[in-house]
């Protein structure tokens, strides 16, 4: 059993069960379904940009670590045999080798994955409050790297609350400003044409009209079906009466490739009639006749065709979604098992459906553009409708291209290379067109692509994208299962919020790596090279069962942690006001200030950590050239990262005053450390 939502059915037979409900049994499946499902199995779970970076860094660190391990081993073996063996102190030599190898082992930043995971988990929790449910943790970081967003139109850029506002019935164009006025507005409609119109609206639909507990009519179904049913009711039609007058014997659900749906009715007076509705230019191409102003069925001549085409274009240019309604009388002997006809129809009329753009979408698209993110609209609607909506949203610009799916899929590889970067709107697209566009953007142009979708047919593109964004309200289960993030309010503005959270961690991947190296690798190297002093022999030995972290260490760790946490929290919460930051770069500058402050907190904490209990931590510091070299290199590279590696490290150059404040905050950790050492434990 299948439902009317399944867009891949070639045809189906609709029969009534004992309860009077309709069931659709599958007669055939489109070959396109096989192609679409094949795309889901292509490739595997791709690594996120952060994972790629971390893997690259891990490889480099591994090679460097291996190199120094070999050098250290060679030097120590030479020293062991030339010096220690002659004195007979092999144990001391082995202990020294262990110390050197310990430094090499510590060089691997194993704490970085944990730091990244904690940062992403925090972002994931916050995004839930902003109407975005993250299904895969890595999606938080990936969205922050997105360079392209391929967005649906209906329900994402628009409100998905549709109403019929214009129509061309019996060749007459009328504007429907209010549903309550429709009955009087169409009072001159020929009775025969009105009967056919209502029969088409109420039977060729996946929606329903029910009576709720308050005794009022409630319309159920997709937004498109709801709009048409509301239009039919406003004309004075009765849904239940119309459905009982004719018997549904076959249903062909809406197909995203054919862009239409159809039904076959068994009429009360005998005979079969097929109704179809769908994309105006596609359904109109199947028509041979039309109902004229007098309600007569006449051949569709060139003048009538031109009139209808101009009407469709006019509706579309007003950002209206257009649907054409048509019917055909079936010859005697036609079997319901046969596919619904694809020609010979009579055009009943064309309706223009308004789907308003969501508030805030235009501003969100502008934010994306200023952030270096290209937004592209991919829709199944008429190209003029798509262009009108895209211009209203700020997606289509003067130098952009709007193209239809059939034209896009005819392009060869060379043509696609020059065309794809300019495509801002793709109309009348099939699921494979969307998948192809996303795949080329990712593989050929090395872009990080986010894709929105709500239907079953969007699953291949959602799977192919670096990050799939499914609609939480209108989305099907198949779309949700293929997505990384669920947009709970189906709003494009929420997608921008997701991208903002992906970029908003105070320390980015490069910064986290640098901090980790300072605290782990370089810190271990600097402190492990401290030469022993005479005061060590004044302390008692460390006993076998003594705690690894002593009370003295706990005191210093907790004290410094509290200070650094307070500082970073204040900068994160109040930094913009404290430093008087304003403008589009204020967020990057604030993150750079936080990053710089945190780094210098670690630099001065390394100095304080030379002695766990002594106040004078500078004693003998110049004698340890490795320690001085490590600190000097750290400061030098920090200056380079902040001032010159802006795009790579996500930093912004700081003023002298900002440098002084951040360094001073880091330096304050030293007197705090000295004060902590006076606390007896």
Quick gist of this model?
Its main location: membrane. 49% of the residues lie in helices and 18% in strands. The protein has 681 residues and is an alpha/beta fold.
If you had to describe this structure to a student in words, what would you say it looks like?
The protein is α/β, with parallel strands linked by helices and 681 residues long. 49% of the residues lie in helices and 18% in strands. It contains 26 helices and 21 strands. The strands form four sheets. Strands 5, 6, 9, 10, 11, 12, 13, 14 and 15 form a nine-stranded mixed sheet that branches. Strands 3-21-20-19-4-16-18-17 form an eight-stranded mixed sheet, sandwiched between helices. The protein is elongated, with a radius of gyration of 35 Å. 39% of the residues are buried. Residues 1-44 have low confidence and may be disordered. Catalyzes the hydrolysis of ATP coupled with the transport of calcium.
């Amino acid at each position: 059993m299948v439902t009317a939502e399944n867009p891949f059915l070639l045809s189906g037979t609709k029969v009534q069960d004992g309860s009077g409900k309709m069931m659709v049994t599958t007669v055939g499946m489109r070959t396109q379904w096989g192609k679409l499902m094949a795309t889901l199995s292509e490739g595997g779970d791709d690594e996120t940009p952060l994972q790629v970076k971390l893997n690259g860094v891990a490889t480099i660190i591994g090679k460097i670590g291996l190199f120094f391990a070999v050098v250290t081993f060679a030097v120590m073996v030479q020293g062991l045999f030339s010096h220690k063996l002659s004195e007979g102190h092999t144990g001391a030599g082995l202990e020294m080798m262990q110390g050197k190898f310990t430094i090499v082992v510590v060089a691997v930043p194993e704490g970085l994955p944990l730091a990244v995971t904690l940062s992403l988990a925090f972002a994931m929790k916050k995004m839930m409050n902003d109407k975005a449910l993250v299904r895969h943790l890595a999606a938080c970081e990936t969205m922050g790297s997105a360079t392209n967003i391929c967005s649906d139109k209906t329900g994402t850029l628009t409100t998905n609350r549709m109403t019929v506002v214009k129509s061309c019935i019996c060749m007459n164009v009328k504007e429907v400003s209010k549903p309550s006025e429709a009955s009087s507005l169409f009072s001159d409609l020929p009775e025969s044409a009105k009967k056919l119109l209502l029969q088409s609206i109420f039977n060729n639909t996946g929606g329903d009209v029910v009576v709720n507990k308050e005794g009022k009519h409630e319309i159920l179904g997709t937004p498109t079906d709801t709009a048409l049913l509301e239009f039919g009711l406003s004309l004075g039609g009765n849904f239940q009466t119309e459905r009982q007058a004719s018997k549904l014997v076959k249903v062909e659900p809406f197909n995203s490739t054919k862009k239409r749906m159809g039904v076959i009715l068994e009429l009360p007076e005998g005979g079969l009639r097929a109704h179809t509705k769908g994309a105006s230019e596609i359904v109109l191409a199947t028509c041979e006749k039309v109902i004229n102003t007098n309600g007569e069925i006449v051949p569709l001549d060139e003048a009538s065709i031109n009139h209808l085409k101009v009407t469709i274009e006019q509706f579309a240019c007003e950002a209206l979604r257009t649907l054409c309604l048509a019917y055909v009388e079936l010859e005697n002997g036609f079997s319901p098992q046969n596919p619904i006809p694809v020609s010979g129809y009579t055009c009943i009329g064309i309706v223009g459906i308004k789907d308003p753009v969501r508030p805030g979408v235009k501003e969100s698209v502008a934010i994306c553009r200023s952030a270096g993110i290209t937004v592209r609209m991919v829709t199944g609607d008429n190209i003029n409708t798509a262009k009108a909506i895209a211009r209203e949203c700020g997606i289509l610009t003067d130098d952009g291209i709007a193209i239809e799916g059939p034209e896009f899929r005819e392009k060869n590889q060379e043509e696609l290379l020059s065309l794809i970067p300019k495509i801002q709107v793709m109309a009348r697209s099939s699921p494979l067109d969307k998948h192809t566009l996303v795949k080329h953007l990712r593989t050929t142009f090395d872009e990080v692509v986010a894709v929105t979708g709500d239907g079953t047919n969007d699953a291949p593109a959602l799977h192919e994208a670096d990050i799939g964004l499914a609609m939480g309200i209108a989305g099907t289960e198949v779309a949700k299962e293929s997505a990384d993030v669920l947009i709970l309010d189906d709003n494009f503005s929420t997608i921008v919020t997701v991208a903002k959270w992906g970029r908003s961690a105070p320390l980015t991947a490069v910064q986290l790596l640098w901090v980790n190296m300072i605290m782990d690798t370089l810190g271990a190297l600097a402190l492990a090279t401290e030469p022993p002093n005479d005061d060590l022999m004044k302390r008692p030995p460390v006993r076998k069962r003594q705690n690894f972290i002593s009370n003295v260490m706990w005191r210093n760790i907790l004290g410094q942690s509290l200070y650094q946490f307070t500082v970073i929290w204040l900068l994160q919460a109040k930094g913009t006001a404290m430093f008087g930051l304003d403008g589009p770069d204020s967020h990057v500058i604030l993150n750079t200030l936080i990053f710089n402050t945190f780094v210098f907190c670690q630099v001065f904490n390394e100095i304080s950590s030379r002695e766990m209990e002594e106040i004078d931590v500078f004693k003998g510091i110049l004698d340890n050239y490795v320690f001085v070299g490590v600190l000097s290199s750290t400061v030098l590279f920090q200056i380079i990262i902040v001032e010159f590696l802006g795009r790579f490290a996500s930093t912004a150059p700081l003023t002298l005053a900002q440098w002084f404040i951040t360094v001073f905050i880091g330096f304050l950790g030293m007197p705090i450390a000295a004060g902590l050492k006076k606390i007896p434990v």
